[in-house]
Model the fold of this input.
Amino acid sequence: MAADFGDLFEAANEHMGYEGSGWFGFSGALVSGDDVAANLDAALRLMARTGWDKYDRCGFDLPEWNDSWSVLGAIRAVFRAVRNYLTGPITLYGAIQETGTHDTAKVTATCVRAILSAAQGATCYMMDAWAERSDITARHVEELIEITSEFALRRSPGGFTFSLPAAPHNGRTPY
Done:
C-alpha cells in the first residue's frame, strides 16, 4: 500500500499543478484504517525525496470519515513532520466536510486540537466546507477558544484562520 500511495500522491500533485509550487497535497481518503502508518511513511518519504525545503504550504482534504480518529492521527503526524523538517512557518489549508457524526462541537474541537498540537509555526486556514456549515455556531467557536487558548482565531471570508508562532527548526535530517 505504501508504494501505491507514494505513486498516487506524486501523480495527484503533478495532475493538480502542485508539483514545484510549494504545495504538499494530502487527502484523508488515502489514510484510513490499518494503512495509516504505511501511507504516512510513503508520503513523508516522498516529500523528503523531492526536497522538504520547497514546501511552504500543506493542503489537506477530509471527505466523509469512516474512521475519523485514524484520519485525525494522520493529520497530526503529517503536520508534526512538516514542523520538524521545515525551517520556517508554513500555511496549511484544510477542508473538513461531513464527518458522519452529529456531535459537531466534539469533531471541530478535536480537529483544531490535532492541528494546533502539531502545526507549530503554521497558519491554518479551514475552508468554507467546514466553516460555513449551518450547525457550526458561535457556541462551538467559543468552545474551541476555551479548549485551546494558545492560538489567535479570527473569522476570514469563507473560513477561520488560526495563527501560531514559528517553532525553531530541530535540525533533524529527513529520512
In short: Residues 68-85 form the longest helix (18 residues). Strands lie at 23-27, 57-62, 90-96, 122-126, 152-156, 159-163. The first strand starts at residue 23 and ends at 27.
